[in-house]
């Protein structure tokens, strides 16, 4: 009964989305206030019906309703309740329901938090979000319905959730990632609405910014979680594999980062509108492409669920309508856009554009690397695979000029920057970062050029960030002056410093990690990077839906016990699959990592030991970046613009210009 | 004019990409063989789980149409289909079990073979024994060859040892009448 309510609600939500796509858009074209005012209530109704549908599917999972074929495929009566709740998005159908629920959430949020926006703009934005939703509701109802019953004959028990997904990281990773992916739909809708209206002024950029930031924050955390999960759950000791699906989430992030910066320029300087619009379209298009790649099975990956071409075809149809349509609109409308601001060849505008170009280039590299194997095969040239070496090399080339500009950009002025004025700061920063970077790497017995390069780049960002704060606060460098900086300014600093922290982590851990495969009997010990790993033996393990073995390892540093690790190997009885649960002792400067392998014929155990320096910095940096996004998104001028009248927001524009650099000097 | 092209470029790039995605959608070999049908049974050499000294190979299936049922005592759904399979056996349909087990592996608490045998005997005496014999897929590599994704799964093997049907999930009255029996009859009559 409850699942029928859910199914029906989903149909109602589809109806709402159709109405939402049609009436407000029509009203906006005819300037009909009654039709335009339908947008908000329709968006809220769509959200409510979607939430009911989602809740009822969750109910079916909690109550083990195996008459639903989706529940029978992805759950099992032995599965603990919290995993039954997360199993809702453990398979194809449910993950799409989560996708559309999140789209409805964003649409509802825009409806609720758009009071000061002109009605016409709200109507268009919501209508576009509704239009995107129509495609996905249709897809769920027609091609991948999680409410499909297997009545009157249904299995007594389910086939269980994929053990890989039975993990705390997996509970939060997909929803966060989807929040980011789908969140770019809002920036997309704003861009399309602005294109339709032809009004691409700085107000559009200002409204769009907090939404873009919010999506970017979720995406940053989502990607970091995914990488962290891969690191400790897959037991391969790696944290990024350039897997097509990882790439699919990385591309919107790269473009989204470019979009954030480009929006800032458009808001403050009224230039680069057509570029910003293109990035907004690209960010969401790449999210859709990511969804297609993951769900259609075009690319073979650990992430792909079993899939059939009809579903892929349906998503491709949505892609063609959404991306093709918006790019067509772009081709028609964008050539007419003219920037208003003036700027010189060396100015903050140009430096930021430079970085946008590098971010776009990086996106292209990832896109080509991901799709080239497919294109190659389709052209009949045979199968090729593009792996980590290609990406690593390309990113090494790209990151040097990128980081250089990243450091100089915040130091420079809008409109025009004389190179001579920056010379001293740059030389000082170069000197400091070079010596710091080299010093850090001298601490390791095996000197690595790549790690040194990475550390120098990271230090360059640290140093220039400090220089920038000093420059902004003037000679009177004290706490009082620091509090004068706006939140969005601190957001920028945190974003950049976070990136530096991640970069430092990547450089050090990828060059200085050591690993060792050993065979050990209980009581034996092995040495790695100065640590003594003592194997204490194994004991059996009994979980709710798995059995297995747990191996105990004590780690000593100069005779001191520093970690006591239990590496597990689990066997999930219903799905008949093996999982390695690596044991990790995390620290600021290093991780100790033990994975249990196979038992050998003579009773010894195979163990894999790793010492990974600074690996946690990768995720710590991502957190700092997300925090930076949060600071920017909660800046006064966005918060106020939501409640204040248009007049008040004008005042803030004035006060904001007053605090910008060229007036300060 | 040159500038206009710049704005159309993204659209062109997208269209080109779509062509490849579309063709990629239909050419992926992963879609074939999802269900193993109309191919010869992969060669095997497996022991009888109750009498490990007895070895069988694919000639076991030659000469008659047989059901090959993949199961284990740990599998709830398998327990449910046992009584129905037993009915089928009583109608004279030959059923061979493929016993799918990992507990023998010392990695997993190390159940001994006699323990497994006694569990099987217990289960079959309780719910009915439809099997002529139970092949023991100890390291699960044969299930892998067959493309088994979980238990229970049932195959129809014809007189030449060719897989004619692969059914995922339990066998019950409905599935038997609608899906399995017609194929079974067709190959018996051939």
TrEMBL record, chain A:
Entries under Pfam families matching the protein: CcmF_C, Cytochrom_C_asm
Q: Which NCBIfam families match?
A: nrfE, PRK10369.1
Keyword line:
Cell inner membrane, Cell membrane, Cytochrome c-type biogenesis, Lyase, Membrane, Transmembrane, Transmembrane helix
Give Gene Ontology CC terms: plasma membrane
Q: How does it sit in the membrane?
A: Multi-pass membrane protein
Q: Where is the Cytochrome c-type biogenesis protein CcmF C-terminal domain?
A: 316-636
Using the UniProt record, give the first listed, main subcellular location: membrane
Origin species: Neptunicella marina
What is this protein's record name? Heme lyase CcmF/NrfE family subunit
> Membrane-crossing residues?
6-26, 38-62, 96-113, 125-144, 178-198, 210-230, 250-266, 278-300, 312-332, 353-375, 395-414, 426-444, 450-470, 490-510, 614-633
According to its UniProt entry, the function of this protein is described as:
Required for the biogenesis of c-type cytochromes. Possible subunit of a heme lyase.
User: Which ranges of the sequence are coiled-coil?
Assistant: none
Per the record, the similarity remark reads:
Belongs to the CcmF/CycK/Ccl1/NrfE/CcsA family.
Single Gene Ontology MF annotation:
heme transmembrane transporter activity
Q: Which domain of life is it from?
A: Bacteria
Compartments in which it is found: Cell inner membrane
What biological processes does GO assign it?
A: cytochrome complex assembly
Query: Where in the numbering of this chain does the Cytochrome c assembly protein domain appear?
Result: 89-296
Automatic annotation (TrEMBL), chain B:
Q: Name one Pfam family in it.
A: Redoxin
Q: What residue stretches are annotated with the Thioredoxin domain?
A: 35-185
Q: Which GO terms describe its molecular function?
A: disulfide oxidoreductase activity
Q: Name one GO cellular component term.
A: outer membrane-bounded periplasmic space
Superkingdom assignment: Bacteria
- Give the way it sits in the membrane: Single-pass membrane protein
Give GO BP annotations, semicolon-separated. cytochrome complex assembly
**Keywords for this protein:** Cytochrome c-type biogenesis, Disulfide bond, Redox-active center
Report the main location listed first in the record: membrane
Report the locations given in the UniProt record: Cell inner membrane
**Family matches, as InterPro entries:** Periplasmic_diS_OxRdtase_DsbE, Redoxin, Thioredoxin-like_sf, Thioredoxin_CS, Thioredoxin_domain, Thioredoxin_ResA/DsbE_sf
NCBIfam families (UniProt xref):
dsbE
Supply the PANTHER family for this chain.
THIOL:DISULFIDE INTERCHANGE PROTEIN DSBE
> What family is it from?
Belongs to the thioredoxin family. DsbE subfamily.
Q: What is this protein called?
A: DsbE family thiol:disulfide interchange protein
Provenance organism: Neptunicella marina
């Amino acid at each position: 009964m409850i699942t029928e309510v859910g199914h029906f609600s989903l149909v109602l939500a589809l109806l709402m989305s159709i109405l939402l796509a049609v009436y407000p858009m029509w009203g906006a074209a005819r300037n009909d206030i009654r039709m335009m005012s339908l947008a908000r209530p329709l968006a809220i109704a769509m959200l409510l019906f979607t939430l009911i549908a989602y809740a009822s599917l969750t109910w079916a999972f909690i109550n083990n309703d195996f008459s639903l074929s989706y529940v029978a495929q992805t759950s099992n009566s032995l599965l603990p309740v919290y995993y039954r709740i997360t199993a809702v998005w453990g398979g194809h159908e449910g993950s799409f329901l989560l996708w559309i629920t999140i789209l409805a959430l964003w649409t509802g949020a825009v409806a609720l938090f758009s009071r000061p926006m002109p009605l016409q703009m709200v109507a268009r934005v919501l209508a576009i979000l509704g239009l995107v939703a129509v495609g996905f509701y249709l897809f769920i109802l027609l091609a991948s319905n999680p409410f499909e019953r297997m009545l009157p004959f249904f299995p007594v028990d389910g086939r269980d959730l994929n053990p890989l997904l039975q993990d705390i990281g997996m509970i939060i990773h997909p929803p966060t990632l989807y929040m980011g992916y789908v969140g770019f739909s809002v920036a997309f809708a704003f861009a399309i609405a602005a294109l339709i209206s032809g009004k691409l002024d700085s107000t559009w950029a200002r409204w769009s910014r907090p939404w873009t930031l919010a999506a970017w924050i979720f995406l940053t955390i989502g990607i970091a979680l995914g990488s962290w999960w891969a690191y400790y759950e897959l037991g391969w000791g790696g944290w990024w594999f350039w897997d097509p699906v990882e790439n699919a989430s990385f591309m919107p992030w790269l473009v989204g980062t470019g979009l954030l910066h480009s929006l800032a320029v458009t808001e403050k300087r009224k230039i680069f509108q057509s570029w910003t619009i293109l990035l907004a379209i690209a960010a969401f298009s790449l999210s859709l492409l990511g969804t297609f790649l993951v769900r259609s099975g075009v690319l073979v990956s650990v992430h792909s669920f079993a899939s059939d071409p009809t579903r892929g075809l349906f998503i491709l149809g949505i892609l063609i309508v959404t991306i093709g349509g918006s790019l067509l609109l772009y081709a028609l409308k964008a050539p007419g856009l003219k920037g208003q601001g003036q700027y010189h060849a060396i100015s903050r505008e140009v430096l930021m554009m430079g970085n946008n170009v590098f971010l776009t280039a990086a996106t292209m590299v990832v896109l080509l690397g991901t799709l080239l194997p497919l294109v190659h095969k389709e052209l009949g040239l045979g199968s090729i695979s593009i792996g980590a070496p290609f990406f690593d090399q390309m990113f090494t080339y790209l990151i040097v000029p990128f980081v250089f500009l990243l450091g100089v950009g915040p130091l420079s002025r809008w409109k025009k920057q004389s190179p001579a004025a920056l010379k001293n700061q740059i030389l000082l920063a170069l000197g400091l970062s070079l010596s710091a970077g080299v010093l850090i790497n001298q601490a390791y017995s095996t000197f690595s050029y790549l790690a040194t390069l990475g550390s120098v780049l990271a230090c360059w960002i640290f140093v220039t960030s400090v220089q920038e704060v000093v420059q902004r606060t003037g000679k009177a460098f004290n706490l009082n002056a620091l509090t004068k900086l706006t939140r969005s300014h601190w957001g920028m600093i945190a974003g950049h410093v976070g990136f530096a922290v991640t970069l430092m982590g990547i450089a050090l851990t990828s060059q200085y990690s050591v690993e060792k495969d050993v065979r050990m009997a209980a009581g034996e010990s092995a040495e790695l990077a100065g640590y003594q790993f003592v194997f204490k033996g194994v004991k059996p393990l009994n979980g709710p839906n798995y059995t297995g073995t747990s191996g105990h390892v004590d780690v000593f540093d100069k005779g001191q016990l520093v970690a006591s690790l239990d590496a597990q190997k689990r066997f999930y009885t219903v799905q008949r699959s093996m999982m390695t649960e690596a044991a990790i002792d995390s620290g600021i400067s290093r991780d100790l990592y033990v994975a249990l392998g196979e038992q050998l014929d003579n009773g010894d155990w195979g163990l894999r030991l790793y010492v990974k320096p600074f690996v946690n910095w990768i995720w710590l940096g991502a957190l700092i970046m997300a925090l930076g996004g949060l600071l920017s998104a909660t800046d006064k001028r966005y918060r106020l613009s939501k409640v204040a009248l248009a007049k008040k927001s004008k005042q803030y524009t004035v006060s904001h210009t007053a605090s910008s650099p060229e007036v300060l000097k | 004019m040159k500038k206009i092209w710049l704005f159309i470029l993204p659209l062109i790039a997208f269209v080109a990409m779509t062509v490849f995605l579309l063709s990629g959608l239909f050419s992926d070999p992963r879609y074939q063989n999802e269900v193993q049908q109309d191919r010869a049974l992969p060669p095997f050499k497996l022991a009888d789980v109750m009498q490990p000294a007895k070895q069988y190979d694919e000639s076991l299936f030659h000469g008659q149409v047989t059901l090959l049922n993949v199961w284990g005592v740990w599998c709830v759904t398998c327990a449910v289909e046992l009584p129905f399979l037993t009915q089928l056996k009583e109608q004279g349909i030959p059923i061979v079990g493929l016993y799918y087990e990992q507990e023998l592996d010392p990695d997993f608490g190390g159940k001994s073979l006699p323990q497994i045998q006694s569990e099987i005997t217990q289960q079959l005496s309780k719910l009915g024994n439809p099997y002529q014999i139970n092949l023991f897929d100890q390291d699960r590599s044969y299930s892998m060859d067959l493309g088994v994704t979980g238990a229970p799964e049932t195959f129809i093997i014809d007189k030449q040892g060719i897989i004619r049907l692969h059914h995922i999930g339990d066998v019950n009255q409905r599935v038997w009448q609608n899906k399995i029996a017609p194929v079974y009859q067709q190959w018996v009559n051939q």
